[in-house]
Batch of 2 targets.
Target 1
Amino acid sequence: MKDTIRIGILGLGVVGSGTVALLQKNRVSIEKKIGAKIEITKIAVRDLNKKRLVTVDRGLLTNHCEEVLDNPENDLICELIGGVSPAKDYVLHALRNGKHVVTANKELIAKEGHDLLHEAMRRRLDFQFEGSVGGGIPIIQPMKNALGGNEIQEIMGIVNGTTNYILTRMTHEGAEFNDVLEDAKAKGYAETDPSSDIEGYDAQYKIAILSSIAFTSQVNVNDVYVEGITHITRRDIQCAQELGYTIKLLGIANRIGEDQMQVRVHPTLLPSEHPLASTNDVYNAIFVRGDAVGDVMFYGRGAGMMPTGSAVVGDIMDVGRNILFGSTGRISCTCFQQRRMASMDLVETKYYIRMIVIDRPKVLAAIAGVLGDHQVSIESVVQKAHLNDNAEIIWVTHKTKEKNLRSALESIRELSVVLSIENFLRVEE
Amino acid sequence: MKDTIRIGILGLGVVGSGTVALLQKNRVSIEKKIGAKIEITKIAVRDLNKKRLVTVDRGLLTNHCEEVLDNPENDLICELIGGVSPAKDYVLHALRNGKHVVTANKELIAKEGHDLLHEAMRRRLDFQFEGSVGGGIPIIQPMKNALGGNEIQEIMGIVNGTTNYILTRMTHEGAEFNDVLEDAKAKGYAETDPSSDIEGYDAQYKIAILSSIAFTSQVNVNDVYVEGITHITRRDIQCAQELGYTIKLLGIANRIGEDQMQVRVHPTLLPSEHPLASTNDVYNAIFVRGDAVGDVMFYGRGAGMMPTGSAVVGDIMDVGRNILFGSTGRISCTCFQQRRMASMDLVETKYYIRMIVIDRPKVLAAIAGVLGDHQVSIESVVQKAHLNDNAEIIWVTHKTKEKNLRSALESIRELSVVLSIENFLRVEE
């Protein structure tokens, strides 16, 4: 039997460093668990002289990625550079060289995962990506393995740590979005260009990956509705709290009937006693509802050097075992169905609407009338005094179709007594 | 390649029925996921005429377990009868016949798992038991796979649904233990003989299984300290709440240094904002702390027909894949270390102590003095009027060794002013 698994690594940033550090620290037990030695043959980096988060023998580093990709000794390539280009080319190159691949690259998997998985499947190679969602939280392997007997009906999760950190601080400190964002940048919790996080794209990649697995159907990431948190104000958070809700950025995926699904990312009002509502700071939590298992939740740190390193090393061990037992390709692409993405118009949920109106008799009744005309019925309404003798009205509707709500809002905007619709947000129970 | 996985099942009670029902309901997708058909050849039951929770062809049933165990067509035997005898003999018989085994039998795994796993390992057979802990919650596979790169430092979990249901109702309704227990029996949430649950033995089996995997060392279930919930009173729950704590029955396992561990089950005061404190009713939740991943939590229904069936079917699919790829025995016993169980004397935690004393000047000071003499320092103390002009004193200590606390309590019991020590419980942060 083969006695050593040889790994070439592309990238020694945060995740690469965590992976290498963990393989160093727990080498003895990891090797005992899989029954073979693990050897890192080379690590390709852009800058040989950059200071690293982990101590590695200088001789292990190269700035020629071919030395990793084309080394016939390697069994397995870890792609830890991120982004689609040139990562996709490197992964394809590795697969075509007959190498198994482990990655934590959510953008690559969300955008190109289907093609790459099929390339791997044709060659009976392993291609794994546990670290692409939820950092070190086991979620992809459990959905494919332990929960494999279930039809997954719904996934609902906090899958982006940066936005959860910002919303948590806005909630706890009563602070405005921009102030917290600037502080988060200064502290390293948000990137200099934070748009991928705050516009919801990072969460969009992750819910696309999770829903593809859950619904055994390829999800085109561009079909996933996305709305970030830049329009969430301190005032919305405060109004939500008064109504017993906490605002979280959620990825939500629902199975609809036999051949449809609905996948979306948006800020959501959750009842404050909901377990996701108390998932704070950079923590992630993912609810999965299966037809047999019911609700299960997975919770933990959604990012970071060592947590994501933990996921990558778990994948390396899994692929290593497959190599040793000759069972690579054991679990490959599971998207054997084709589901259509249902339009957002069909989403049926409760809504929170906050608007500023001229404070005059019968205004509230007039707006309520327009909502009713569009089949939107009202669960609760609060009217408050606002600046300049205007009034602020906060509505929570009963469940209604997004289409009805949007057409109601269009009509309401035309009312001369309505000065502005400040925000409208979806509400989950 | 083999195109059918043939399964013989022992037992068609709650878990057996859930397993069969799930294999019936999701047959198409399960077979697509593993790439082979799944066929149940026979189900051995004690009583052919008993009414079942699932509809099965009468011809599938037999009351001769040899028809399951000795059928050469079977690839895999599911042992779903529970208990050690005769389950152990049946499992050994199956393994010696070269059959893979899946079980959800916590008592069997906790008491005999080591021997059975070694028997399976010698024959390169799979022997899996995801359903033995936490019902349908994926926890054993993730610890062996996705979290495999970690040294697990601590596990802390609510692993028994019946006691969690009882404690939740005592907390929410201010009810006494016996009243809730009787009602739970009437509703089917507790068994007619509830001792395995309320005395903590069920939790003891489960934390023994989890800690064996986490610490890669066989844990002798008899070495696991166990204390049930029968001594928890409405008054203790009320006092804990006033101090900001919720009482939960926890299984706790800690790694101590290189070669020791501490594994125990007891009621515990948890800060009310702790995620485990809001795990209510029959739900289970398990915290795992790894050196790389940090804290992760797994939450869901800890028992029941379909949740446990979900775990069994997940194992069947995993073994099925191994059979198809010739990789059985891929993950076998991981207890390659020998850790000693540290004495309970060495447990170091905070304690809650409730006592009734004669209400006389200097009594509190005298007791505090005795605690101090035994190196037990006090975090908070509340004295309240009690019946007959006596007083009730509730202490919460700083962290101290169990040994010190127990010797302090012995000395305190000898004080003539102390009428009774009503309870003492451990407090986690």
Note: The radius of gyration of chain B is 24 Å.
Target 2
Amino acid sequence: MIEKLKEVKKAKDILQKLDTKRKKLVLESIAYEIIKNQKDIIEKNQIDISNAFAQNLKKSMIDRLIIDKNKIKDMADAIYDIAKMPEPVGKVLAQWTTKSSLHISKVATPIGVIGIIYESRPNVTSDTFALCFKSSNITILKGGKEARNTNMAIVSSIQKVLMSYDLPKDIVTYLDISRDETYQLLKQNDTIDLIIPRGGESLISFVVSNTTIPVIKHDKGLCHTYIDKYADIQKAIDISIDAKCRRVEICGAMESLLVHKDIADIFLPQIKTEFEKRDITLKGCQKTRDIIDIDKANEKDFQTEYLDKILSIKIVEDTTQAIKHIQRYGSSHSDAIVSEDKTQAKLFLDAVDSACVYLNTSTQFTDGGEFGFGAEIGISTNKLHARGPMGLSELLTYKYQISSEGKTRA
Amino acid sequence: MIEKLKEVKKAKDILQKLDTKRKKLVLESIAYEIIKNQKDIIEKNQIDISNAFAQNLKKSMIDRLIIDKNKIKDMADAIYDIAKMPEPVGKVLAQWTTKSSLHISKVATPIGVIGIIYESRPNVTSDTFALCFKSSNITILKGGKEARNTNMAIVSSIQKVLMSYDLPKDIVTYLDISRDETYQLLKQNDTIDLIIPRGGESLISFVVSNTTIPVIKHDKGLCHTYIDKYADIQKAIDISIDAKCRRVEICGAMESLLVHKDIADIFLPQIKTEFEKRDITLKGCQKTRDIIDIDKANEKDFQTEYLDKILSIKIVEDTTQAIKHIQRYGSSHSDAIVSEDKTQAKLFLDAVDSACVYLNTSTQFTDGGEFGFGAEIGISTNKLHARGPMGLSELLTYKYQISSEGKTRA
């Protein structure tokens, strides 16, 4: 592995010299190559799926693993879309002349070498590579064992194209390594500039606690929707249903519904009917259960990111109590208020310190695509560098270029 | 210490609710209070200085420790300046409407709780607090033992003012703790959002290797100036002298001078005379020593941040070799090219991946004040979040505020 990583440094210089046209051409050829190699990729995927069944992996995990012709097309389309995006590297983010007549430009530059440690979904392999390549960053991929054959088939298509353009194949490195070797990988501060772990809590905590390389986490989303006293009931119902039911397994899905005490009598019976139609199990605080007949929610429930057809409900006194609940139990990912009152809305949007705070909108919109960023590398739960949906710009850093006519400071 | 940190969380909410006017008033009162208490601060400083002499601390360390009336005035002026700066929190960094009619605002928000671990200079205490307070961040200070009495006198003035405004004194916490307790501090991920270590290499490496809290380092500057074949000789001399001699002990000071082989015969004898007038010891590669009679520079010299009146010199074949030397030996802090040729300049400015890359300008300009940022919290040698001089904006993160008229995604 260490030998492989040495090659990465050489590849970095070459990658950073590629211009926009060349990068576009390479990416388009890779999209084409992935379509061309789909038979092989799907065959390799079937090996992974057989192994997954043999090892009794969870159905949800196997679902995420499956690659078919449609998925291949989606993967290729994502690469074509990224290829077409405007060049992010070299963009002048700010420019000014100082009092002492220095001309300063703040220019977007690649981060360098990005390591992605991920599980299951093989499309992450090509999506991530395409975003890193477009932003002139070297990609080091460490995928899950369960997807190894599929991932390696995808990377092999990518590397074939890179080599056909006389580019070093080490622009992307796939590491088929054990946990022990992953531990070693996390110590390569000299090579790796940033690690992005994407996966369950245990993966993320393993990464965070074993590295001093900067990490941008894609951690859990314990998301709330608060139905204020001044909510429009129909909006409250539509938004609650969407935030919970559209997809229960994503990090932007609602896990806890907070309801103002003055609207609970009208709202709760209606929403109960709607949720029951959709097979959602409800668990409530005592005050909620005084109004609708549902299971009891305990402390643990309010701390749980279900990612499932279960929802906890709590009645609160007012917006301030809703905010306090979110501060205590939330994961600073995505939280919403439904209200027609500007004061309550402002109070909530200002006080809730989450990456995305919503007014009269479903929390399921937290997604780079929906934000207009194009493809996204994930949703950061970090506070530093990048927060919330991460697109191409978030894969860049900057440097200052300063010029003058021979200025000295003394 | 853990008890103290609990109070910090409560203080955070109160701090984040303060508006611009109130923050300005508090800061101005603190500046005034520091002037008013100068006798006490200077007395406490004299205790620190006596102790420092008794412990035989280095002269340079004692120099940095000394606080007199002028220094107190500088500290107060810095706070007044920060108080007057435009409000950074709540600034709308970007705003757009998406295809699905969501209105998105990207809004600057405080990071939360910032821990500063620093050595020697007591003015860092008040400067750092003022920047954190202005950006609505809680400040946790862990200063060096050698400055403890001075630092605590300054913090006591700050806290006196906070309490007079009915604000929690825990908006700033000064920790007078041992290395063992500092180790504990570095484990407080639940309380601290960011750690900024400012000091020598051993301090920084201690912090980085013992925490999983995000760290923004203020690490070393092994800065180069490259005199290209197409340099204007007078500019090359002026810039080299300034970059090395204005202040030899700062991180933006030149440590290595790279000279194009075709200009070495003319440039080196002249610069040698100038450096000798200023008591700079020169060490050169063999080719340099064929032209001027100076000591030999070995591999170690090119790896050394002297922060002293010593300079290493190397003759290079061309700009590309200069870039390679900087990639290998530099610390990605500040590096300069002196050249009248646009092609060479562009090649250098694009390829050298340092926080600040200069054309025909002294590297000693790397400084928040010089960049027009006002006061600075330091110069980041990180690549993520903030790079180079860090002002108020770099002490903020952002959140997305999203609103619509009841949009659902399904």
Note: Chain A touches chain B through 67 residues (CB under 8 Å).
